[in-house]
Each structure stands twice: as C-alpha cells, then as structure tokens.
C-alpha cells in the first residue's frame, strides 16, 4: 500500500488529476456554506431540528448538508440524476433517442445536451415548489422562515437553486474529464463523508442523554464493519465464463488457440440503483413536504424512511434500476457478435444467437443476486436505525455509496499506476472496476 502511494508522486499526470479532483470537491464544500437570499437561517434551523429520521434528513445527507443550510447547492445533484433517468428511459421508448445512442461520440454528446436541458427544467420546477412551500413554513416559535414572501422571492430562489445545480453538474463533468473517478458520484460521496463527523458527534450526544445505550452502539459498530466487509466482497464478486479461441493458420503464423474467460460481475450496475431510487423517491416526497395540503402531507408521511411503504417502494426501484442499468451498459448480443468475429466461443454453446442467449440468462441470474444484495444492504440497516433514532449516515445506502465510490476511484488510480509499471495500491489483489 505504501509503495503504491509513493508511486503517485512519480506520475505527474495522475498527481495533477488527483489535485484537480480535490480542489473541485473543495469548491463544492465552500458552495455548501453560501446561503440562498431571503431565508431566515435561525427559523430554518429550528424547523430542520425536527427533520431527523424523516426524508428531509436523507435529502440533507445526499446534498452534503446544503438543504439544512438552504445554500445555493440545496437541490444538490439530484435533478441531474433525475434528468438522466428520464432520458435513459426515453431511449428505450423513443426511436430517435435510441438512434442517437448508436451514433457514437456525436450521439452521446447530443444526449448529454438533452440531459442538461432536463436538469435545468427540473431544477426550476423543484426550486419554485420549494420556494412556495417555504413561504408557508413556520418555525416552532411561530417565526416565518421567509422574511419577505412573494414572486420576487420565488423567482430569485428558483434561479439560485437552478444555478447551483447546473454548477454542480458542470463541476461533476469536469472531475470526470480532468480528474479521477466519476464526478457526479464523487460529489455525492464528498457530501456524505463531510456530514459523517457531525453524525458521530450527534450519536455520542444521544449516548450521553441515554437515548442510545453502549451495548447497542457496540452492536451498531460491529454491524457497520460487517456491512462494509460484505460490500467489498460482493462488489468484487463475479462469474467467469470460459472462452476459447479457435486456432487459425495465416501464412506461417498461428493465431488463436488461447483460453480465457468473460467476467460477469454480480453487481454490474454498481451504486447507480440506490442513487437513482433515492432520487425518484425524494423528488415527489420533498415537494409533498413543502406543500401544506393534507393529502400531500399524508403522502410525505407514508414515504418516511423506515416505513413499510417507503421501504417497499425503495426495494422495488432498486431491483428495477439494477436490471435497467445493467441492460443499458451490457449488451449480450454485442458481446456474442464480437466473440464470433474474433473466433471465440463458449465451450458447448453455439456461436451467435445461442451464445447471446446463454450470456443473457447468466447475466439475468447474477443481476437478481446483485439486486437482492443491494436491497438488503440499503434497507435492513435503515429499518433498524430508524427504530433507534440513529443518523442516516450509518445506514446501508450511505455505506454502499461511500465504499462503492471509494473502490471505483481506487481502481482508476491503480489503473494509472499499472499502465506506468507501478505497483498497485493494494499488493496481491488488483482492484477490479465495477462497470
């Protein structure tokens, strides 16, 4: 490990990428501290003091504390994720978008442009909804959260929140292109990690007041360690399908005749399903929390983390996005065609359509196992934690994102080192990429 870290200083390009990533994440954390104009910070803090254990607490976790402060980054990166989900779903239903997907780099840029437009639209919509809701909110002492309500406040708030989300979207794209790791995932990762120290302090405060006993806290720590170990094991688990290449004689040279394998990961979709599922749930539930209408409030209450409705919807969305995202990034037909073109075949399986069907059947079973694993990690700890009033940051969703994004980033760093003949960050075990 130490030898691998020492090698970082000997790779100028990698060093620049890491420094750039850290600087961009620092810019994000500075932006979290900049408040949105027109909000009474003390009244808002009093309101959010009661948000622990609600969807506000979870949304605040994903925004890195920006929602609690109602900063310019209060919406976080969730509108961009929601727009990405919508565009990816439309690619299946709209032939024009499906054709763009097949056009390579030019098509990808056009789809990215549509995603940006969708992000702006969703941000403005959410910003207006939250601004209207804030005007009707009162702190426990009867103090209004908004000092001067009206259309000026609504328009300013919507534009401010939209600008913050668009800036975060640009920041994430810059990290992906010029830094290390996936920029959007790293922004969520940084937000969760930045909030963990305060969560630890709050937990110790609960222990001092007697709300949490020492035995349960010890059990919670053991459970966290076990969950992290289980996540690391499952994220590196894969099924190896043997692949043989036929021998071909061209002139005086012999090509092929090799035996290798096709690795299929158990969790091909990575941390995308829980992020997408959380985004889908939080979008309507957040609007429902801010709109003071009885039936909307009942919806918000039913979607409280730890409730049966919330956990059932969450599990269903995780399973759906595990299959959906795996189908997007892994095409068995394309893999089978490439194997056939290069003279490769799976022993006992006819090349072409039979091979594609065989790979698809294995991938379907693996995805089911991966979906069950992700759902268990995300749901079971959160149900236990919601019953004992422990911060969300100790929940399975937060741990899965932190561990998963950390493994992805380390895998990219190690790939840079390996290409330059440096030892990996972890000797004896290569960090496999998850996508």
How does this structure look, described?
With 435 residues, the chain is mainly alpha-helical. The chain has one domain: SecY subunit domain (Preprotein translocase SecY subunit, Orthogonal Bundle), CATH 1.10.3370. 69% of the residues lie in helices and 5% in strands. It has helices spanning 2-8, 12-32, 41-48, 55-62, 66-69, 78-93, 95-101, 105-135, 151-178, 183-209, 214-236, 272-290, 294-302, 308-329, 332-341, 353-388, 396-419; strands spanning 238-245, 248-250, 253-255, 259-265, 344-345. The relative contact order is 0.13.
Topology (elements, then pairings):
Blueprint: H1 2-8, H2 12-32, H3 41-48, H4 55-62, H5 66-69, H6 78-93, H7 95-101, H8 105-135, H9 151-178, H10 183-209, H11 214-236, E1 238-245, E2 248-250, E3 253-255, E4 259-265, H12 272-290, H13 294-302, H14 308-329, H15 332-341, E5 344-345, H16 353-388, H17 396-419
Antiparallel strand pairs: 1-4, 1-5, 2-3
Helix pairs in contact: 2-9, 2-10, 6-7, 6-8, 6-12, 7-8, 8-9, 8-12, 9-10, 10-17, 11-16, 11-17, 12-13, 12-14, 14-16, 15-16, 16-17
For the record, what CATH class applies?
Mainly Alpha
The helix content is 55-70%
Content-based structural category: mainly alpha
User: What is the fourth-level CATH superfamily?
Assistant: SecY subunit domain
* Quantity of strands, as a count: 5
CATH architecture group name: Orthogonal Bundle
Give the overall shape.
Answer: globular
Number of domains as seen in the coordinates:
1
Low-confidence stretches: 423-428
The helix/strand order is HHHHHHHHHHHEEEEHHHHEHH
CATH fold-level name: Preprotein translocase SecY subunit
